[in-house]
Every structure is written in C-alpha cells, then in structure tokens.
Specification:
It contains 3 helices and no strands. The termini are far apart. The chain is elongated, with a radius of gyration of 17 Å. Helix 2 crosses helix 3. The chain has one domain.
Length: about 100
Amino acid sequence: MSSYQPTENRLLKEILEPLLEDFQYWFSRSRSFLETEQITFLSDLEQTQLLDRVKQCQEEVSTAQMLLKATNAQVGIEASMLLPWHQLVTECWQVAMKWRSLKNQ
C-alpha cells in the first residue's frame, strides 16, 4: 500500500482548480441562457435578478481563480463560499430544465 500523501498545494491544484473551472462553465452557460431567452415562468424582474446573481458569482469565482493562480495554490477557499455557488448552479439547472420541458410541450 502506498504512503503517498499529497501536499495541500497539490490538493488545491488538483481539486479546487477544476472545481472553479466547472463553476465558471456553468455560470457562463446560465448567463448566456438568461441573456438570450425569455423565461416565461419568471417575471422580468426575477430573470434579471437571477442573471445579476450569476454575474456576481462569476466575478467571485474569477477572483478566487486569480488568487489561486497568483499564490501558486497557497490560498484556498472557505467551504462556506462554495455552497452558495453550488446552490445557484442548481437553481439555474432547475430553471433551464423547466424551460426546456415547457418549450417541448
């Protein structure tokens, strides 16, 4: 059995870096969707507010990515920051699934 123990920096690079890339991917898709489609089951205000939240989280993730890169993975992110990002991605997925379902009817 191997006794290999990855360093904290390596874990941050191997786990956090791809996770942040995933958040950027899904926020980018959600932003494009919200900017180009009229979501009929959301009011204009609700759609704008959701889009604004996506933009804000994109900025937060970009900042985290810059810090991670600038410090050569010496800086991590509090787990409490990841939860709202995950919840927003999930909310966007739910909106998109409902929109597709209604569109296909």
